[in-house]
Inverse folding.
């Protein structure tokens, strides 16, 4: 097995691990506000999120930034809760524009990246190059995220197109559920 | 809108409630943010014919595993660290790691540990290794503790680098060097 394959798999397994569901819930919250015909926006959002967490993952693994784990674990559910509230607060995107949404996904990605990095940093020593581990771990995370988006889109297709539920109702249901999970995480993080 | 605001405030307020000095026992980690990985580096030091193995294990997981084996809580890297910590870590490694070099079972010699932030780097050695053709390794570190535990092993033998990724499904791996 090559170094690339090993870390790609670690990244993919980490994001798709049902025990580490906070990132999964965030991805679902990102997708919830978008009807199926706006899948391009979802891809841009998820990629913006990836760019965000790639930046902090690299900075923290290189020990250029150091943020206490406890703080990160409080901030991550806050990003989920904020995303859910923006989903249901209808005029958000109309008011602030798409670019703001993408910018926020990038910003939230910065916070999630700190969450990944505290663990990767501890395991990767400083004795060898960490470029390949970091890059392949991030690509693994992105692939895992796209898989979550694909599964979510398949479920959304059944709900919205086959059953015919109005998108607004679906969004409220998913965002509400995700907000509930994030509230529990927030209480648990303290 | 107003109801939503009130609910939101309640959520934030609940998070701000001060935690009593003796908090209700909760699992060492919240269910989120679990990253069950250990990374081992195996490097051959040709000049002194020795294999140096450094295994990075999350400190809390390592302590938990030793407690699960019936050992004491080691409280590594704190003021109250257990006096016999080296013996317990060494026994844990010996019971979960096995090396077969060039087809022969080899004894591991414990060589200490280092603090690596959230992780502990445990050092073990295999002496008298004057050539490396194959290494068969069995790694059961934290395997019975966590279903999703992954144990990555990186081998560096005479400039050749190889990786194996072990887990509950596959606890053994073989790497060959020189051809």
């Amino acid at each position: 097995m090559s170094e690339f394959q090993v870390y790609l798999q670690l990244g993919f397994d980490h994001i798709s691990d049902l025990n580490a569901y906070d990132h999964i819930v965030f991805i679902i919250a990102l997708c919830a506000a978008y009807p199926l015909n706006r899948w391009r926006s979802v891809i841009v959002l998820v990629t913006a999120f990836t760019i965000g967490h790639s930046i902090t993952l690299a900075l923290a693994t290189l020990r250029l930034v150091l943020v206490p784990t406890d703080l990160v674990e409080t901030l991550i559910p806050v990003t989920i809760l904020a995303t859910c509230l923006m989903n249901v607060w209808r005029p958000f995107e109309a008011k602030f524009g798409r670019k703001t949404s993408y910018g926020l996904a990038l910003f939230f990605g910065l916070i999630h990246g700190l969450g990944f990095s505290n663990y990767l940093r501890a395991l990767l020593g400083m004795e060898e190059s960490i470029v390949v581990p970091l890059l392949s771990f991030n690509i693994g995370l992105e692939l895992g995220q796209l898989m979550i988006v694909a599964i979510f889109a398949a479920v959304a297709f059944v709900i919205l197109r086959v059953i015919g539920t109005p998108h607004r109702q679906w969004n409220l249901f998913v965002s509400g559920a995700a907000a509930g999970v994030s509230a529990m995480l927030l209480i648990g993080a303290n | 809108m107003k109801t939503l605001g009130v609910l939101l405030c309640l959520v934030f307020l609940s998070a701000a409630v001060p935690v009593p000095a003796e908090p209700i026992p909760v699992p060492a980690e919240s269910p989120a943010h679990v990253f069950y990985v250990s990374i081992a580096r195996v490097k051959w030091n040709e000049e002194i014919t020795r294999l140096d193995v450094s295994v990075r294990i999350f400190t809390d997981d390592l302590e938990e595993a030793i407690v699960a084996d019936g050992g004491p809580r080691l409280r590594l890297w704190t003021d109250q660290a257990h006096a016999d910590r080296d013996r317990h870590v060494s026994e844990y490694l010996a019971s979960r790691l096995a090396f077969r070099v060039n087809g022969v079972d080899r004894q591991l010699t414990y060589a200490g540990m280092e603090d690596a932030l959230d992780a502990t780097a445990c050092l073990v050695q295999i002496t008298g290794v004057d050539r490396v053709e194959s290494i068969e390794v069995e790694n059961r570190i934290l395997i019975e503790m966590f279903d999703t535990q992954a144990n990555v092993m990186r081998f560096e033998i005479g400039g050749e680098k190889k990786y194996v990724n072990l887990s509950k499904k596959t606890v053994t791996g073989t790497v060959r060097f020189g051809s």
In short: The beta strands of chain B are 37-45, 50-58, 97-101, 104-106, 109-116, 119-127, 134-139, 150-157, 160-167, 172-176. Residues 47-176 of chain B form one domain. Chain B touches chain A through 34 residues (CB under 8 Å).
